[in-house]
């Protein structure tokens, strides 16, 4: 048999217990005395035992009633805490927003809006996990994060994609290693040492998609290292390890300071779209909806913002 007792019955029971009076307990519960009596009778029928002794001293708890009283208080207390938690959630107070981001969004896009967001919503704490685009999609589908920001699109109808902005991928190298060279032919690209990202990287997917339009395949490239992050590639390039394809945004400082330069590959143009992603058909929390909107507003393709 299913449990028939209600929260209202528990509330009336506790109020009658504390006031030792059906009339005062009813008043405290904002109901009539006869309704309070019906609630208590319903509880007693459900539990199969009397909860109150009624006498000249008022409504006194039976031994069974004493056992039930502490549990009823705990249930009502949990309900009050649950209501408070939802109010905090809706009001974005004491909320942790979990986000997954691939390299470029994590290092170039999210930091630019973080101060604005946290100043508007001081009760929200951000938890940003960084990985490649494939791992971010995995976190999103496993509901480990609520939002994702990635550099590639995959054929999965469980994911909703929104266009953030277009990103240029360039072939970068240290000036010392490049020398006077400003471009590489496709044949020369296959001879220079190349540092690349792993298979799940949106950047690397865009590079191989672009190379698919040429005679070059992966086996023709002189790959000396496969790195786990864009930052690792940039560090390797700064240390003259070789050439690498990276987001222009991610090396803006290095280009400005002369630590890196770029070379053209005639016939090869690499670009990609950065996306904001969420689970299809799922309602976002207020904090997630606010951050998602801010990212689209700041970086969306109707008003792209260049890092500076």
Could you name the CATH topology of the largest domain?
A: D-Maltodextrin-Binding Protein, domain 2
Tell me, what is the CATH class of the largest domain?
Alpha Beta
Mean pLDDT: 91
CATH architecture verdict of the largest domain: 3-Layer(aba) Sandwich
Strand fraction: 15-25%
Order of helices and strands: HHHEEHEHEHEEHHEHEHEHEEH
Number of helices: 12
- Give the radius of gyration: 31 Å
Which structural class matches the secondary elements?
alpha/beta
Full CATH superfamily name of the largest domain: Periplasmic binding protein-like II
Helix content: 40-55%
Walk me through the structure:
The chain has three domains: 7-90, Winged helix-like DNA-binding domain superfamily/Winged helix DNA-binding domain (Arc Repressor Mutant, subunit A), CATH 1.10.10.10; 95-165 and 273-299, Periplasmic binding protein-like II (D-Maltodextrin-Binding Protein, domain 2); 168-272, Periplasmic binding protein-like II (D-Maltodextrin-Binding Protein, domain 2), CATH 3.40.190.10. Residues 302-308 have low confidence and may be disordered. Helix 2 crosses helix 3. The chain has 308 residues and is of the alpha/beta class. The strands form two sheets. Strands 3, 4, 5, 6, 7, 8, 9, 10 and 11 form a nine-stranded mixed sheet that branches. A two-stranded antiparallel sheet has the order 1-2. It is 44% helix and 22% strand. The chain is built from twelve helices and eleven strands.
């Amino acid at each position: 048999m299913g449990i028939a007792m209600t929260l209202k019955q528990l509330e009336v029971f506790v109020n009658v217990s504390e006031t030792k009076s059906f009339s005062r307990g009813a008043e405290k519960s904002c109901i009539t005395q006869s309704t309070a009596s019906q609630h208590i009778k319903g509880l007693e029928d459900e539990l199969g035992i009397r909860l109150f002794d009624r006498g000249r001293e008022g409504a006194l708890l039976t031994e069974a009633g004493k056992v039930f009283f502490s549990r009823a208080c705990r249930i009502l207390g949990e309900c009050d805490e649950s209501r408070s938690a939802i109010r905090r959630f809706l009001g974005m107070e004491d909320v942790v927003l979990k986000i997954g981001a691939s390299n470029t969004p994590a290092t170039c896009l999210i930091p630019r809006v973080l101060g604005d967001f946290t100043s508007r919503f001081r009760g929200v704490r951000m938890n940003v996990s960084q990985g490649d685009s494939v791992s971010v999609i995995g976190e999103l589908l496993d509901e480990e994060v609520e939002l994702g920001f990635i550099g590639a699109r995959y054929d999965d109808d469980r994911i909703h994609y929104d266009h953030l902005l277009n990103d240029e991928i360039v072939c970068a190298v240290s000036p010392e290693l490049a020398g006077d060279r400003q471009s590489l032919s496709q044949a020369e690209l296959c001879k220079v040492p190349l540092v690349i990202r792993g298979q799940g990287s949106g950047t690397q997917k865009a590079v191989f998609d672009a190379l698919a339009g040429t005679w070059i395949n992966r086996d023709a490239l002189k790959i000396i290292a496969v790195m786990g992050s864009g930052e690792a590639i940039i560090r390797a390039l700064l240390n003259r390890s070789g050439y690498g394809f990276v987001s222009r945004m991610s090396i803006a400082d290095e280009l400005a300071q002369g630590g890196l330069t770029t070379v053209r590959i005639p016939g090869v143009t690499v670009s990609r779209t950065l996306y904001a992603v969420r689970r299809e058909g799922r309602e976002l929390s207020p904090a997630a909806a606010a951050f998602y909107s801010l990212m689209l507003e700041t970086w969306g393709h109707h008003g792209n913002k260049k890092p500076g």
